[in-house]
């Protein structure tokens, strides 16, 4: 099953809205809320870089050298 661009966008919007509303309900100082809001963004960036690097790396069966 192929995932198209709109499905990924909709999933990101739902996760983003859910995380914002969940963090807004937490009783903590405002200074710490900004740090907690950055955690999902950092996790998403790490996952993106990991999968991008994994897909770009040549396999052992690839006879061409780059």
Task: Considering the chains and any ligands shown, give keywords for the structure.
66 residues; mainly alpha; 2 helices
Explain the layout of strands and helices:
Layout: H1 5-25, H2 30-56
Helix pairs in contact: 1-2
Walk me through what this model shows.
The chain has 66 residues and is mostly helical. It is 73% helix and 0% strand. It has two helices and no strands. α1 packs antiparallel against α2. The longest helix has 27 residues, at 30-56. The protein is elongated and about 55 Å long. The chain starts with a helix and ends in a 10-residue tail after the last helix. The relative contact order is 0.07.
Number of helices: 2
Strands, count: 0
Class based on secondary structure composition and strand pairing: mainly alpha
- Mean pLDDT score: 81
Shape: elongated
**What is the N-to-C succession of helices and strands?**
HH
* Radius of gyration over all CA atoms, rounded: 18 Å
């Amino acid at each position: 099953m192929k995932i198209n661009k709109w499905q990924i966008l909709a999933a990101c919007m739902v996760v983003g809205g859910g995380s914002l509303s969940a963090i807004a309900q937490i009783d903590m100082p405002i200074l710490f809320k900004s740090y907690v809001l950055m955690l999902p963004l950092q996790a998403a960036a790490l996952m993106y870089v990991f999968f991008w690097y994994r897909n770009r790396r040549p396999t052992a069966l690839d006879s061409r050298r780059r």
